[in-house]
Amino acid sequence: MQDSVCDSLWRASAPAGPQLTQLEGEIEVQVAIVGGGFTGLSAALHLAQLGVSVALIEAQEVGFGGSGRNVGLVNAGVWMEPDQLDKTLGLEAGRTLYNTLAGAPELVFSLINKYHIQCETTRHGTLHAGVGKAGLTQLQRRCEQMRTRGAPVELLDTAEAQVRIGSTKFIGALFDPRAGTIQPLAYARGLAFAALKEGALLFDQSPLNSVRPSTEGWIVTTPKGQIRAEKVVLATNAYSEHGVKEQARKFVPIFYSQLASKPLSEAQLAKVLPNAEGVWDTCTVMSSFRLDQRGRLVFGGMGGEGKALSNWASQRVAELFPFLSQVEWEYAWSGKIAYSEDHLPHCQQLQHGLFSVAGYSGRGIGPGTMMGKELAEWFSGQRDSLSVPMTRLRNVPLRELKRLFYEVGAQTYHLGQKTHAID
């Protein structure tokens, strides 16, 4: 299955990232980080802020993986409904994680403001769009649970949802004003600049060869260098197959693909998402859509790239927005999600001083940024524990079979969906 980034809108439109070099020779720091995505970059930034020496290695370039390929919705919380979160983790741990991630968008936008990151920031909220009666029931349940916990969310009725989205195909929507949209690769590159400014060491084109214990801590090796560190964080998430294979077995990799249109006309933009919120729907095989800064419609769906997905996307857009006529796609790309069995992110202490963070299950911008900050505070003694419980995960049973099940299911859905299915 393709894992394509070459034709990504985000790569075409993001400001250039910092000019980094390969790791060569030996360096010694307090913390070494493997992975240049949101978690790793946030951890490096916040560790450096706190005066902790830190070095980060990235196999490709900053934001190469899911952090530079995702939809760019900065949402609060996790996929799981709040009541279910309490049942899964226990009341105290569930509320702790919920409250922490409720503040994740504020952290993201505050970093963007503090470091003047140019990443097409639009903080107009997001819309969780209800498809059919079952979708509306889900949104009603979520709204009640979130409002009980103090979230300023609003359940929009059919008429208002259709005006805000620009389509008659949704029965309602849950609006969260805390959220917004960004250009995700530009944000990742901006975090890298910020981390460098604070004193972190960053290296790209430096794939992990090994992590092995030493008398003082750990030795992280790459093809041309090595890092001696007291602690190591593995933050490669869905891109763990090359170098952190043992961690890859803890999650199921799922593809999510996106297409971006040519810029819409002013008349079209007056109808499609006139307030520029980001949207995702309640379908089991989820889809999402938003606008970029130039007025392109960015449409995404579960599954890898291919004719089935692009044909489905064109058909779906024609149903949602018939006034757009024939949409022309300029860009198409895909990336991988690390799907955990409980749909929650996890932090594992694999051995003393060796940690792994992964499993964002497709919601990594806010949680990944927050997790990096919490790790930095925990390592520096400013907090006693993490909001995400420390767990020891088992290998996913029948992992490859489950990956195929998700992919075939998405492709079958895209091939077989009829236009009336979204009514």
From TrEMBL:
<dbReference type="InterPro" id="IPR036188">
    <property type="entry name" value="FAD/NAD-bd_sf"/>
</dbReference>
<dbReference type="InterPro" id="IPR006076">
    <property type="entry name" value="FAD-dep_OxRdtase"/>
</dbReference>
<dbReference type="Pfam" id="PF01266">
    <property type="entry name" value="DAO"/>
</dbReference>
<keyword id="KW-0560">Oxidoreductase</keyword>
<dbReference type="GO" id="GO:0016491">
    <property type="term" value="F:oxidoreductase activity"/>
</dbReference>
<dbReference type="GO" id="GO:0005737">
    <property type="term" value="C:cytoplasm"/>
</dbReference>
<protein>
    <submittedName>
        <fullName>Glycine/D-amino acid oxidase-like deaminating enzyme</fullName>
    </submittedName>
</protein>
<feature type="domain" description="FAD dependent oxidoreductase">
    <location>
        <begin position="31"/>
        <end position="378"/>
    </location>
</feature>
